[in-house]
Fold:
Amino acid sequence: MAPSPVAAFARGRVEQMAVSATPIRTFDFRSKETRFGPLTFIGGLELTSPNPRFGSFSAFRFLTPGGSFAGVADTGYWFFGTVEHDEAGRPTAFSHFTMQPMVDRHGKIIGRKWLTDAESLAVRGGIATVGFEREHRISEFRIDPQDMKGPVRNLDFLIPRKELRTNKGFETVVYAPPDSPLKGARVAITERSLDPVGNPYAAILEGPEKGVLTVARKGDF
Structure:
């Protein structure tokens, strides 16, 4: 049996990757419209790399506004880089792009999809909160782009484990605004772990409103 791509990494290795970017100038190729209600489409990027580990990206969050970022791939990798912009503020490229495998508490590369199916990410105060499915959990990690370690701790995700479907777990983890009724609490929402009436389970993980809830579906959303 061939070793997994993750297992091919040396322990603790960070791999620099060449990434090519093709700018996307319009949100809809049939129209030049850039205004959508209160939103303006600035631009996007189509990204490619010759490295076979590039891709399967689940989520990323900016560490600096519009610049450096951290992300997770559902193949068991962290990725980091910087978005470059032109004079008009439109994204033009990724620079300083790296990937590294997720490791356990002992620093050993995990290398198994079942244990590293990362789907969601929130960052604040140097801590990355990652939601995993299959082996359902929400874990905290200290952010170090040059040497990501194993989890600091696993959070109580509150939702009964029996209600979480194998490949339809924590698709979103996000911080509520500090001035909202949730007082900056983290909120986790499942993909399609549904209650008896078909609504996805979710949880407010901390704060004054801590508890389990469901999200009312609207059509296909």
